[in-house]
Every structure is written in C-alpha cells, then in structure tokens.
Amino acid sequence: MHSLLLMALSLPSWQDEQPFLVTGLALGGVYALSGVGMIVLYRTTGVLNLSFGAVGAFGALIAWQLINHSGMNQWLAYLICVLFAGAVTLAYGMIFGPPLARRDPLVKTTATLGLTLILLGVMDLLWTSSGGASRSITLPTDNHGFLIGQVQVTTTDVIALAVGVVLTVVTTVFLRFTKLGTAMRAMANDREITATLGVPVRRVEAAAWFGCGILSGIAGILLADLVALDATTLTFLVISSLAAALIARLSSVVVTFIAAIVVGVVDAMVTPITSLTNYRDMTPFVLAAVALLILNRRRVLSLSRQGF
Amino acid sequence: METAQAPQNVPSASPPAAPPRVERDLLIRGAVITVLIAAVLIVLPQVLSLYYIDAMTQVAVYAVVALGLGVLVGRVGLVSLGQAAVLAIGAWVAARLLFGTGLPYELVLLASGVITMLLGTLVGLPALRMRGLYLALITLMLAGAITVVLSSINFPNGGTGFAGYNGSQVHIPPLRRPSIAQTDPAYFRYSVIVGVVMFLLVLVHVRTRPGRAWAAIRQSEPAALAAGINTTAYKLWAFALASFITGVAGGVLAGAVKYLYAFDFQTQDSITLLAVVLMGGAYSMWGAIVAALLMQLLPAILNNVGLSPDWLTIIFGIGVLQVLTTAPRGIVDQVPRDLGRLARRIGILGRRSPTREEAAR
Amino acid sequence: MSISNVVPRARGGLAFVAIFALLALAGCGGSSNNTSSSAGGGSASSSSAAAGGTATSGGGSSSSVNISSCGSKPGVAATGSPINIGTIDTKQPGTDFSDGPNMINAYFQCVNANGGINGHPLKLFVQYDQTQPAQVAAAAKQLIQSDHVVAIDGVFDLLECTVDQAYWKQLGIYEMDAGIAPECWSTPNSAAVNMGPRYSSDGAVQYGLAQHPSKVVFVQSNVPGTGYIAAGPKALADASHVPITELTENVPITDANSVALNLVNSAGPNGWVVLNFTPPEALVILQAAQKLGLEDRVKGWGCSTPCNTDFLAKALGPKWDHKLFVNAELASPDDHNGPEFQLYKAILAKYGSSVAGGVGSFSQMGFVLAKFLVQALEKTKPPYTMATVNKAIVGIKDYTTEMECKPWTYGHIALHIPNNVDYTTTPSNGKMVTAQGCTAISNADPQIAQYRSAAKAAGINPGG
After folding, report:
1. ipTM score for this prediction
2. Would you call B319 and C223 a contact, using CB atoms and an 8 Å cutoff?
3. What is the mean pLDDT of chain B?
C-alpha cells in the first residue's frame, strides 16, 4: 500500500531527498534575509517595507556597474551598495514617514509599493536587457565551501544563513533589552504617546529606516549572488519572503526566521517529485495562506476606518 | 486610529432622500452620460486608427476590472492585491468555454462571470476574517499561488481534457469572437456595451441597500454591526460583485486578444492595478475609467512615440505616493478641483463649476 | 500632475523626487553614460563588445572591406521616395530584442548613404511590444495602416508569428524574422534566419547523443509551447534509442541549486543535460551547478542557442571549457573574420550606436535580415509596392551569408525552416569557440523531415 502511494506520486527516496534538504536550508536562508529584514522595520515603525527587494536590487546593480565598468574594488562597491540602500530607505522614511505616520498600516505599506514601482522603473531604464544582456555578481566566498553528504555548500550560503540567524538574535535582544529598542516598540504601537513620553521619535524612526535600508543592501548583494542579479526577480522575491513574515503574523522575528527555513526546505524537497515540481513555487503562498487562515480564526473587528 | 487625511465629509454612496433638484441633476447627468456613451460608440471607431481602437478595447475591459477593485477599495474598504489573478481566472474560464462549447458569446461571458464569482467568494469567505493589511497580503499570496497554477496548467489553446491545453500545438488557433463583433471596431463597441452594463450593475448596487451598507461598514464596522447590518454578508456580496464583473471582463479580454498566455497576468499587474485605481480615484466610478486609461491607453501612446514603458512604472509609483500623501480621492477629484481653483484664480469662472459637482460624487 | 496646487503637503513629494533624482545621479550617474553600452548579447563583455565595435572596426576598415560596399552606389545618398519597412519586436525587462531592429536600422542607414535601393532610401518602422497579444495585433495594424509599410522584415518577437500570421496571409505579406513562436517555421508566410527554440534544442541534443550518453535530460522554461519544443528532442532521442526525460521549470528561477541538483540526479553519471533557457536563466542554473560542484557529475551539458554568448563563457569560467556544448545557429564572430563579418563590424561601428550589445547574435541576425532584404530589392525594379516587394522577398533563393552554414531560401512552401544546418560551440578562455562545424539537424525531427521533403519537391536546397 505504502509503496503503491510512493509509486503514484513517484516519491524519491530519502537518499535522494537528502541533498535537497541542504539546498532547501540555503533557500530558506534567502527567504529569511528579506523576511526578517522587513519584520524589523515593521516592528519598529509599523511599516511593512515592500520596497525592500527593489532597494537591494538597485544597490546590487550599482555595485555591479562599479565593479564591471569602473573597475572598482568589489568590497568598496558592496559598501557603496549598502550605503546607497540605507540612504534611499532613510530618505523615503524621512519624507513619507511623518505625513503617513497616523495612517493605517495598510496605507503605509501601499505607499512603499509606490517607491517599489519607481525604483523598478528606473532600474529597467538604466540597466536594459537589450541584446539578451544579463548580469551576475559572484562573491569570492562562492569559491570556498565544504561537503555535506554529497552536496557542496559554499561559504556564501553559510553567510546568508548566518546573517539571518545573527539578525534574528540581535533584533530580538535589541528590541527587548535596549532602550532604543523599547522606544521603537513603543513607537510602533503609538507614536503620539511615545513622543509625549520624551522619546526622540524622529531620530528613533530615522535609525529604524536606515537600519532597514542597510539590511536591504546586504540582502541585495547576497540575493544577487544566490538567486540572480535581475531587477524584477529581486524586487518581487520579497513577496515570497513576505510569506514567512505572515506566518509569524508580522510580529515575531524568531518565528519569521523559522518559517522562512521551513518554506525553503519544503520548496526544495518538492523539487524531485515530478508530479508536483512545477507547483513548488506555490509553497510560500500556500503555507502563508493556510497559516493565516488558521491563526486568524477568531473574527477581529476593526475599529478604524477601512481602506485608504 | 486614522482619521486625518481620508475623505469622510463626502457622501460616497447614496444620497439620502433625494430632493427634486437632485433628481433633475441626476436626469441631466444621465442624459450627458448617454450622449457620451453614444459618442464613444459611434465617433471613436470612425476617428481612431485600428491601433488605438485595440487600445481602447483594452481600456473598456480594464475599466470594468478597475471598477471591481474600486468597489472593494473605495466602497467597502477591502484592499485586494490579487485582481489580476481574478481577471486571469475569468479569461481562463471564458477561453475554456469558447474552445470547448459553441455557446453564444454572451452566455460565455455570463458563465465566466458566475464561475469567477463563485471562486472569488470561496476565497473571500475565509479571507473576510482578516482586516486591512492582512487581507491585502493574503490576496497577494493567493494571487501568487494562482499565477503559479496558471503557468503550469496554461491557458486553453484548443486541446482536450480538463485544461484544454495542448502544448504540442504547431498552429495555435485564435479564440472566437461573437458573430456580431468580428472586426476590431465592432468588438470595441461590443466591449463598451458590456462595460456599460457592468457599470450599471454596480451603480444599482451602490445606489441601493448594499451601497448604504458598504458605506456604513467602511466608516465603522462595529457601528454597522450595531445598526443591524450583516457585515459579513455585505462584505461577501462586495467580493462576489467585484469577482463577477472582473470575470466578465476576463471573458471580454479573451475575445479581444484572441490569444491568452499565463505570463500576461503577473502579480506585478495586480500591484499596478491598485496603483492606477488609487491614482484614478477609488471612490468614484469615473475613477475606474481614468484608471483604465492610465493603465492601457497611456502605454499605447508612449509605445507609439517610442518612449520606454518603464517611464510609466515610474509615473505610477510617483502617483501612488502622491495620492496617498496628498490626494486620497485620486485624479477624478484632484484635477477638477485644481482646474476649478485655477479657473477661479483667473476669474473667468467664478461660479460653481459643473466638474466639481461631478467630482463630489 | 497638479503638484503645485497641493500647497502644504506637496513639498514632500517634490522633495522626494528631487532627492531621489540626486541619489540616482550620485549612485550611478558616473556610470550612467555607460548604460547605453552596458548590456548586450556580448553583454557582460559589453565593454569589450562596445569597445570591440570601435576598435575592431578600425582594424576592419584598414583591411580590405570598404563600408560603402553595403550599397550599390558608394557615397551617393539616396533621395527618392522612401521604401517603408516594418518590424515588431519584444522589448520588456528581461526580454529585450531591440538590438535586432537597431542593427537593421544601422544597415539601412549605410545603404541609404550609398545609393539606397536604386535611389530609394529604406525607412524602418519599429513597433515594440511587451508580450501582450493585443499589442502585437495592434502593432501590425499600425504598421500597415498608419506607417504604410510595404514589407515586414526583422521581427524579433515572442508572439508575433502566432498572432499576426493570419493578417499577413490576408495581405500577401511574406515576413522575414528571427522568431520564437512555432508559427515562424510552420507557415507559408514566415521564414526565419534563426532556428528557434525547437530546432536549436534539436541541435544541442543531437550533439549530446553523438557522445553516446546513457540518458538525456531536456529542461526548459515553463512557458506556453513547451510541448511543441520538446517534441523535437524527444524524436531525436527516440531515434537513437536513448531514454529522455523532459522537464520544465518556472521562471524566474529562485532556487537554482535545487534545479541543478535535480537535473544531475535525473541524468545520472553517464547522462547528458540539455538546457533551453534565456541566457540569464541558463547562467543561473549553470552557476548553481558549478557552486555545488556538479559539473562533472554528468557526462556533459548542452544548451540551445541563447547560451551562445561570450558573456556566458566569461561568467562561467574555465570549469566549463569543453564540458558545455552550445548549439549555435550563427557563425561565431570570435573565430570568423571574412569580408562580411568585417562589414558587419564596420557598420556596427559607424551607424550602430544604438545597438546596445554591440557584437552579438541579435545584431548578427539583424545584419543578415537587412542584407537579404537589400539584396532582394536591389534586383527588383521600381515601383516598390507591397506586391512587388513581397514578390522579391518570397523569391529569395540561395542567398549566402558567412554567418550561416547553408544558403537561405524563402520560396512558396507550406512551412519554412531554411536555417537547419548549424554549429556547436563550447566555452574556452572566456569565449565561445567552435567545437563542431556545420552539421545538419537530423531528419528524425518530423518537422525537419517534412520541410526537407517539401523543399525538395519545390526545387529548393533542403540542407542536410
């Protein structure tokens, strides 16, 4: 009976699945990077920054340009990428943060879609794909690695996962135990009251936006290497990463990280199952939808006005 | 918690107990609109090249899609980031029926509307438990999932089986059009008429009980509940209505393009759709038409003058930010108001400008 | 819009735009003058491609070829009434074929400066689309009705052949293209200078089969028409009694590691993996395979023609030299330098500033498409109407080019696969070099067999 079911789905053996577990961890690391990065800002400012991917992609493309056409040292170029991402995100936060501060989270989130579209359009204008052009960033860490089972793991994969872990731990500790972190959490709840309590709201917000920008820059470089240096791909990759954040109900950094890893592993392990392999890109969406529906079983009444 | 920017002093749906003057205004407006539609039907196909007739057919289709999203966003306050996927479902059903059956086109449209409505409501039912941001995000997730499914099962191309897709087709047959609308100008008229019917359908809803209930829900759900409004049913109703007209639009789209591909319905399109609906004005039915012009006519013009469509993406991005920060009622409100202000400033038109009245709806 | 009227809050928006512009300028302004040349079929090697354009043209013009040889009257500008030619091209992020029409335009400029077509200049009208069938249909009507073109030459498009075939047939237009859709090769009114995904995949699989693998794995992007493409490789593998597995992958690929792993696992140590993807996607898979150390875990790797760019060879590095074998429908500019290649590079240098990718397969195909049209029209007497021009086009017979293996013929037949003999290339020191010279695609593909018998019956060189 069991073997019959295996036959029907043409399930691969555990032996065959093992390597996909490893690649799945790496993919999970990719999702975790963006997912955790977005949650950090959401928990501190109440803004779900959907331009996270676009900003990172823009930075990565600038780095590519500097390395390949200006002959710049690659580490310097990556530094510029990260700083650019920080600056753009900070500028957005400073300009659009205050006028939207009192609006619904939905409005704030939609506004970041505006930034996303602008960045995407500019990227497509500046870095065309005419003549079948395509670009890639290869980090030096790609050439070092070790074997797990029969799968080569590169140092870049490890770095991506490590950045995710470090980010998760540092953010959790920071938000819970530091003064600035507490201020941020308070602000996400109620900006006005926090301000009256003497917290320098604008400075704290600036720190959060800049931090989020820096993270998107780092994620941009790593994802350009791990996924592809393509404006559209990187911009909309956040939608998949968002799934992990949604599973964590946009609140827990730790759960986001774990959810991202689970999404990555499930996605990868479905790859060798022939009948399902073309549907595996649904993994983040399906898991998020199911999780949301289960987690939100209780009916919540919205007290505020809906929509824009 | 938010109150400041969003409009609230403007009655968005139903004018209570209409005094006679308003009724006369309504009549005049009805007459103006009728003349306008007649002009669109008769004059446009005469003066426009086939290139722009095709573009305007797309406008007619997307005006209905934008209207559906406008109902959700503007009337009820439910934000969907998955309307392109709903449109895709409508187009898929229509294509399947067009290849698989000899049904008259109108029945195909009706069927794709109804089936899309059932699917949309099915999805909407559990999603309704969510509010605001969560609802927007779950629709984004579902749209992502639908896109993956569609790119795997593909749009029907005359093959057999449930999916009606034959990947080995050497000659892909075009989808058929209604016998009365074979040519492009005729099909344009056909799409406009279908569009007008959809607008009327929505108008009827907005002007009657559902419209009033939606407005109440949008203002405050607890208050609506307290007033004895079955909020779940009315929200679901809005989902059903939006899905129905979007499904019908999908059916019209099928005949307009004749060939359907999964890559024409991307998640990005849902985002662009929300952007143009916000820019056009989600609170007004005219906004839907402006949104469709932005999304379909503007690219055709840019393309024709040789400008990259990337500029549009940038403009839409700026538009979203501008609308959200300064003009939540969109172009249909903004432009007449600005024009009015300009006119007053010049001093030629001191009196009440009719466009403002229009916009206040 | 009306920003100026929204006094209090609009400043934010304006400031944002200004700051954004500044950032954009600061970020990449220094390099923005590069962007026009930052892409290319040679693409990543674009700097070298663009530079190559100027540098080698210096070499080119110093050698025997004179650029004025593109026209019939050197140095005499054409002043007659223009001959309007139309084309439709896909141009969207990720799929931008504009190098093709831009090269045709460059060629036309050269011809117009050197006598034109019996004194008449050629004028190219380009319509771009973003893979929306409605747009493609509208574009065709725009070209005919508003631009009054008399012929369609140089279509580089994902959908055009499917969408517009009926319209061309109705008008009596015989289009020349570098296509992708199946109808480009299977209809009376279209002939392509390229082989397209199916026959190019055939070529890549055929090379693999000749190395006697135990199995072939053929993988392509999950887009409409995959079944049609896969039918070719399957027929070839079946004829050689080698098992074949056909896979599709959703694009853009986000988990290339799993994809690469899956390919290698299903091919086995003695198997042959053949990819049919756009260059970026193919690169992502191959790079993932390299990262995971999988390149030696199968007998060999193959790729259809999009992989045939130096940029790929450069990005992949030496591990793939003589490990990856790419089907190439055009002769490589790296190891060919006859008079025609010199003319191509010279035109590119003098008139091709808009050809972003410089030397590359798209501009090569554009060159061939322009050359054939000019050659056909020069033999035709005025007036140049839709009827006379299309008669000249369909009458093209045995036109040779250094860029392709076999002479090219249009002709009145039910289907056209005029380019069916091709090269195989492999990366070597960051360039794509020829691994196998002209080889005919096997008749095992029923479509190829059908074309060859139809061509033979019509007295046309069937190739192979």
Report:
1. 0.88
2. no
3. 85
